[in-house]
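Entry type: protein chain
Record version: 2
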Amino acid sequence: MQAISLPNPFNSSLNPFVWLKDQIHDLFIGTVGLIEHLIINPPRPKPGPWQAFLYGNALGLAGTLAIAVTVVIIVLALFIQGRLKSLVSALVVVAVIGVAGPLWFGLCAYLVGLGDDLAKAAQFYTPISGNHGGPFIVMPPIDNVIGAINGLGAVTLFGVILVGIFYMYEVVVILVQFTGILVFAVSPLGARTKKLLNLLISLGLVAMVFGRATAVFCLELSKIAINNLPGGSTPFGATFFIVVGILLAIAMQYALLYVTYRGQQMIVGRVASSVRGKVETTTKQRKTVDVTSALAAHAATMKPVTVNRVGNSGPPPRTSTSTKLAKAGAAVVATKVASAHPAGAIAVLTVKTLGSSSSGKKG
């Protein structure tokens, strides 16, 4: 259906059809602005005695858990050598909770305020109102009006889902503040508690700092598309761009959670590997062998060889087996030396001659 265009004899500001068209356009922009306002200023519980009671109990319970975990790890370290590294982590956790435990809740409050400032800064675009005026009276077709009503219904539905996510974030912030310090106290127990701590920190960063600012930025992009891209002024185009912006804002919450979690794992992994390498380098010593002690122990196991000495009239002395082996070895060595060099042969012959002559004399 084509829009009816007639000459406009009146002032454009008094044109009721142009006014209706502009109101439909502004209604879409206003809906996005309302969603942004609810995201930037979510309803929060009023501070009061309940905070001191809740967070005070969390701090006291965390200190008790940290000490209990340290005692358990000390007992395990007596039987399992690998638990010594966990003992160092447990002592660090006890020191951190005892000294800087109350600062945890102040840090969370600071991060929430930082998230508020980032969300307000993300609302950077000033929307342009409808195109008032014109040389013609433009009557919006009836299907545009019906389409605008249906489009606003879709925008409202997805907007409620998005706002509901950020209302849940306010509950998540309280849970992260309470359970975060407790999980930190038991984190030296193993890899699962450390992963749970990383997940809580990632969820806290998204809920406190980055989530709302990213969602507002995505909605600002949808307003820019409505005012500047072709078809943005039509009910279908406005509905499409706003719904896409809302879905993008929802998807970015999961993306932020994944990125922060993976980033923490990389940082913690590098720090742990560096510390583990230094500890192993300083504690691992070389095992040296004492040669003197080894030789003394070997000599202590040796037994002397008994040789019977008799007079000249008696039977010939018995030659021990070790003496025979020594003579045989000497003969082999002499033969090799004689075959290797002529001078060696002469020396060997001389030694044999002297040996035979001396033995003859003894006989």
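Comment: The beta strands are 4-7, 136-139.
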